[in-house]
Amino acid sequence: MNAEIGVTPSQESHDHWLDKTVFGWWQALTIEKLLIVLILAVTLLTRFYDLGARTMSHDEVNHVVPSYTLETYVYDPVTHGPFQFHAIAFSYFLFGDSDFSARIPAAVFGVAVVAFTLFAWRRYLGRVGALIAGFLFMISPYILFYSRYTRNEIFIVFWGLVMLWLFLRYLESGEKQFLLWLTLIMAMHYVDKATSYIFTAEALIFLAVLFILEVLHKPWETPRTRKNFLIAMLIALLAVFALGAFYLLSPNGLAGIPIPALLILGVLLLAGLVLMILNLVRGLGWGQIRLMRSFDLVVLQLLLVLPLLTALPVRLLGFDPLDYSQAGILRSVVVFVVLSVISVVLGMLWNRKVWLKSLAIFWGIFIIFYTTFFMHGEGFFKGLVAALGYWMSQQTVQRGTQPLYYYTLVQVPVYEYLPALGTLLTLILAATRRLFTNQPGAPFEPALPLTIPAEGELPPDAAPVSLNLTDAEESSPSNVPIPPLPPEEPEAAPVKQPLFTDPPEDNTPARSIPTVALLLYWSVMSLVTFSFAGERMPWLTTHITMPMILATGWGLGYLVEKTNWQEIRQKKGWQVVLLLIVFLFAFCSLIGSLLGVTPPFQGAELAQLQATSNFLLAFVGSTGSLIGLFILLRGWRPKTFAKTLLLTFFSILSVLTFRTAYRAAYINYDNAKEFLVYAHSTRDMKDVLEQVETISKRLYGDKSIKVAYDNDSLYPFWWYLRDYPNRMWYADNITKDLRDSPVILVGSANFAKIEPLVRDDYLMYEYKRMWWPTEFYRNQTLSTIWTDLTNPAMRSALWQIWFNRDYTEYAALTGNTGLTLATWSPSDLLRMYIRKDVAAQIWEYGITPQPEEPKIDPYASNTISLDPVKVISVAGQSTFSAPRGIAVAPDGSMFVADSRNHRIVHLDSTGLYLNSWGSYANVLEGPAPEGTFNEPWGVAVGPDGLVYVADTWNHRIQVFTPEGNFLRMWSEWQVQGVVDNFWGPRGIAVDAQGHVLVTDTGKQRVVVFDSQGNYLTQFGERGLAKGQLDEPVGIAVDPTGEVYIADTWNNRVQVFAPNADFTIYTSVLTWEVDAWTSDSLDNKPFIALSPDGEVYITDPDLGRVIRFDSEGNFLQLWGGYDNSYLMGIISGIAVNQDGTVWVSDALNNTLLVFEPPPVP
């Protein structure tokens, strides 16, 4: 920059303690070198030790499998950029395919992060600060864990680490090589993951602000031009803030902005930017601007990325950037070409030489990786639009659905508390000592003040190129004399400046480097950005951690460098440190005793006496160490003690952080106690694999066994069965062919479906397949947080979770039984079925399984194959989404509870759409007005034609006219003066007298109301006995008033008869059904009566319809895996007046119409 002059940084003394030799006989080995070697050695050990022990998690499988067959790999934005797949494939090439080799690239980059920090960042963090930052990267729980995890995160940490360093390096030196290195790092990030767009946006904001601050310190042609620039900038900022407000407040992001508002704000933004540029060039001159290094960084990044923003204008024009049809591709190509031309022209105007080299580097890397080394050209097009297009589409998906405070109050406090506090320390130090910017080469010395050079101080080549936006006489520097021309020669023609030129070289050292400003900005902006992004997942915490560690390294390095260690040694500082440690632990114990579940001096019981003794010991320890400190600190300066206290405190935190990291990476790595993982495979899956391999090798001598696995067990067996040639993925398509497989693996979603296939011929073993961290932190408010923190028992429970990952106290306090490893919830199960004839061949010690009598199918006598005569998937403008209950109106029309569309659909007797109503609202999230639903399951029609809806997860009943006009609703009532309410009502029926009967499934009962919602009576309670119910769902009433109930978990149909005044219902008939064997959330059967009194039930998990007479005698069955038409999870059922049977398929989102044949 032409306004900068050379600055000689303060030189470190030659007797710096880091330069002292460790051994007199080895002069080359200094303390600094020894510390670097130790940190790198421990980093290597922690990254590579037992690297293959952990079972491949869900997300890892998505990366390691395509890498195994790289020749068929084509870029897919769902699994992020192509770089990781190439890196893993290269590791396979060198070391073979295994869990260990798949994680080598991540481990290598984990080491590179520490090494780069130690060697490169010392210029900006100081020598001590770089050592501290490298050490903190080494022990960081997140950095360590994801250095041993096959995801992109550790690569991105490295790209970000280098990128921030390159910013500072170029701002300091102005050497163009750093722009080329920046291009390389950007290219690698853009072929790695879509977080590159976030990083670029963060960088452009910081550099743009830096550029604006810089130009405002320069001399402008006129004050008016400067003022116009500021006004234009204000207009642009207002447009940006308005767009940001729309994005944050609209559930659909930018897509939710009204078109007129979007156009107005777009015009304002464009106008503001154009006016800013015009006034800037007019006020400073193009040549002056080109010499500004912050401008170079802004232009380089913006123009390189501009063509990759193709998805944004395509989306703003109302099209789908993920449309890969011929028209969609053509549309995207046109936009890409336009943006590319703009990018190239502007880049050539900026700096021809650097720009051409940057283009070659960036697009060379981009093309190589996205085409998989030119094997898949379609990957290039997908890379242009899919990454950003998919990311924008995911913003409304809210993957993970974590709260906004997920990072601030959960991940950072649990794992990265040290760098968070260190960043706060750095902010305080920088603010109080004015160290947001520093001198080059002197990170702890304030920057020299900026000065505005006089007009004559500008170098003669500072403005060699002009856009001629000023008057002609002002476009040439007035202080440069024009040599006289010989009179005898004609006047020379003016030299025409070429359009594309290179700016003059300016390697003048900068006066100030914004080291701390950049690190603090990046820490805060990363926290804010990832908190508001659509996807909030644990691994993204790494990107928040990286700048915080750098900032902490600077802050702690400052304390170490600015502390007078000689004074501390002379005044017995080591004793002070020891007493400080004793005092801190004793004082914390003292506070813990006072705030614990059992405070001191509460009684004479053993626990109370123990609490009192603990308090007294802590009090004595605190008092004694405090007195010792007062004695030792006489003559100490307060600042020296404060620095010693802070360094001692952070040293203790580093030990705690190491413990946290160690437990996460080497103790709890295969369970769900830690919060820094998500979908996490269990150790059981490797045990299953070992058993499959053992069986195969004992039977066949190799891995040629036939092993089948479903859509759930695809993770992780998509990876672990890669070298089993006879593996078979059957998804959820269960057929008799599976019996050819000696081993079948099945996830919980298909347990009930596969049971009829395997129960006679296979042995079953059950395992945990996958688990997720508990999410008790959801739905917190300041009030609930305060309540928890002021409750001694809850405080103690939360402390045990934070410190030990021990959930025992919390489970006892909240009654949550799913917080032990044996009962953990949320989790998912897997069953391994081994065919009995195979088990008999390999049974150990000659013991064979006891033979079992084959189970007789009670419905085999009349099981038929029946195809639907009609399949309906669309109602109005929407497809069905998990349709449930079906009801027949007196006029023959049908009402359907379209549960996950949160609406009721009205069809005529042939299935044609008539009308629908309803929208989503959840009473747990706020008001749920009339006519809104939260997954309605049940629907019934009264004799008067009114429609009654069981609004299941709003725990209420609503009543409507057939046209969908709301009439009334109720959710609670009084029974003998006590308020009662529903819990998840699913089934509903209305008898001939207008009584409304509701299966209150969650409370194991049936509640009866009149048509106005007034409570009449109830019957049923949880149990096995006659008259008791267990998970009642489907309900139907015959013309006499008898009530038929699908008593799900008792595996029976139960019939109740009312007394004369319908106040008492008595169980008069039951019959068992060979169905409803699983306790899955979808295994909720419904029941229907035909006009002639026959009973139809659904068997959801097995996709079967079973038909009985009114006494429970079996008549007919269709469906199941033997049926020619495979039904999914069927729920609702109704029999129309013409005898057709209507069934809802919640898995396939369809309504099915059957015409069952007469029973022989």
What general outline do the C-alpha atoms trace? globular
Helical percentage: 40-55%
Terminal CA distance reads 96 Å
What integer value in Å does the Rg equal? 36 Å
Structural class: alpha+beta
Tally the structural domains. 4
Strand content: 15-25%
Catalogue the unreliable spans: 1-14, 452-483
Query: How many DSSP helices?
Result: 33
Brief summary of the model shown:
It is built from 33 helices and 41 strands. With about 1150 residues, the chain is an alpha+beta fold.
Which key terms come to mind for this protein?
16% strand; alpha+beta; six-stranded mixed β-sheet
Give a written overview of the molecule.
The protein has 4 domains: 17-221 and 285-419 and 513-558, no CATH class; 563-636; 682-775 and 826-845; 884-919 and 930-1154, Neuraminidase, CATH 2.120.10. Helix content is 43%, strand content 16%. The strands form 12 sheets. Strands 5-9-10-8-6-7 form a 6-stranded mixed beta sheet, sandwiched between helices. A 5-stranded mixed beta sheet has the order 11-38-37-36-35, with no helix packed on it. Residues 1-14 and 452-483 have low confidence and may be disordered.
